[in-house]
Write a structure and sequence with these properties.
- The structure is a single chain.
- The protein is of the alpha+beta class.
- The chain has a single domain, classed as Clavaminate synthase-like (Double-stranded beta-helix, 4-Layer Sandwich).
- The strands form five sheets. Strands 1, 2, 3, 4, 5, 7, 15 and 18 form an eight-stranded mixed β-sheet that branches.
- It starts with a helix and ends in a 15-residue tail after the last helix.
- Bound molecules: fe (ii) ion.
- The site of fe (ii) ion has 3 residues, from loops.
Length: 398
């Protein structure tokens, strides 16, 4: 028996997409995440369909649209879907000279065909695994363990990462990310764990973090799943007086140590449904080259302790959900109301059964129910590394 929220979502989807759509909980009815079957994302969305999908993501934070591989799904379809949630961000790894461009030393160049990740993935097990057409799109980031892999290679396992939201450190943070899953490891169904729990190297996390926090950070799935934590549920459970205090907190973010940076509220309020969430409340989630966030009015050390306490709360097992990827899934998540982490995984493989290949697109800005998007040129200039692409789509009203 489904809960009321899930039944309501299913009825709304059936009304716009057809009676064969079904919705189930990804983990439990009182947790984030729903799985939608019978919905074909190969077809362009009408305005009302796009609005419904955006509102369901607002409500459930994580949505999986199953079995898109049965409808000949393509990278173009993922890019079109992404454009409804926000403007897709070309990924820095797709450029040959992104850092030089950022330092204003060169004009931006995309990687040549032979250097592109899609080409290098295809070189690992030719004949067996080839990327989808369109995988060279600048907007697509290939999550994979195929680059430099091959039959004669020695296996390697990498540790999990920091808990994070995708590119939360930019002035306009990413709102939404999504995966299309082409291949997942087939060996993970074995009774034994798929990979050993590879711990990150010393110094990966701040040495003063408490043992309880470290235990939660390192409690990651070991079979290719993506670990999520629900930062909206975590906020909702806090005592009212603490919520009111947190609502006043401003966080200073900087791209580099020493920058003046800018202030943003710690608590994100979704403008469409009013849901409050802790937006990336993790001090230590930054890459080595990115300055840590700081609570306005607190020292660096006090900020770290403040963020550590919140991170420990958000990573409580009751807010966690480990997502098992299945081939053909499109999984979309909100970066405002979730944190996630990549699991320890085989990073270099010598048999295609261990391959992990997913297409990720992330976007920022407001949703757009109609396409092409209508972002203004100033906003595009300030927020999107070229090329900005939004598809021309005409769909009959549904
Ligand atoms: Fe990520």
């Amino acid at each position: 028996m489904l809960d009321t929220k899930t039944i309501r979502a299913e009825k709304a989807l059936q009304a716009l997409f057809g009676a064969s759509v079904e919705v189930t909980c990804l983990s439990a009815e009182d947790k984030m995440g729903r799985r939608v079957t019978g919905l074909n994302l190969r077809q362009a969305l009408t305005e009302s369909q796009a609005k419904l999908l955006v509102s369901l993501l607002d409500e459930f934070s994580l949505l999986t649209f199953a079995a898109q591989n049965r409808v000949d799904f393509s990278v173009t379809d993922l890019e079109r879907l992404a454009n409804h949630f926000g403007a897709p961000i070309p990924h820095p790894k797709n450029y040959a000279n992104y850092m030089a461009y950022q330092r204003q030393e060169a004009s931006l160049m995309l990687k040549s065909l032979s250097e592109q990740t899609a080409t290098r993935c295809g070189n690992a097990f030719p004949e067996v695994i080839t990327c989808l057409e369109g995988a060279d799109s600048p907007a697509v980031y290939l999550v994979n363990n195929l680059v430099d892999s091959g039959w004669a290679k020695k296996e390697r396992v990498s540790s999990g990462l920091h808990w994070h939201t995708d590119i939360e450190f930019e002035r306009v943070p990413l709102s939404t990310s999504m995966f299309y899953v082409q291949t997942v490891p087939r060996t993970r169904d074995h009774a034994e764990q798929w990979v050993p729990n590879q711990l990150p190297e010393a110094g990966f996390y701040h040495p003063a973090s408490s043992p309880e926090l470290m235990a939660r950070r390192l409690d990651l799935p070991l079979n290719g799943e993506t670990a999520y934590a629900d930062s909206a549920a975590a906020f909702a459970d806090l005592p009212r007086d603490q919520q009111l205090e947190l609502l006043k907190v401003q966080v200073r973010r900087r791209l580099k140590v020493g920058d003046k940076g800018w202030l943003i509220p710690l608590v994100y309020e979704n403008p469409r449904n009013g849901m409050l969430s802790l937006h990336s409340p993790v001090w230590a989630s930054r890459g080595k080259n990115i300055a840590p966030a700081q609570v306005e009015g607190l020292s660096s050390e006090a900020s770290r302790e403040f963020f550590d306490a919140l991170e420990q709360h958000v990573l409580d097992p009751k807010y966690r959900y480990d997502h098992v990827h299945q081939e053909g899934d499109v999984t979309v998540w909100s970066n405002f109301s979730t944190l996630h982490n990549a699991p320890p995984a085989k990073s270099l493989i010598n048999r295609p059964e261990d391959a992990r290949l997913m297409y990720r697109i992330s976007c920022k800005g407001s949703p757009s129910y109609k396409l092409p998007r209508n972002d203004n040129s100033r906003w595009i200039h300030d927020n999107i590394t070229p090329p900005y692409r939004t598809p021309e789509v005409t769909v009959a009203a549904g």
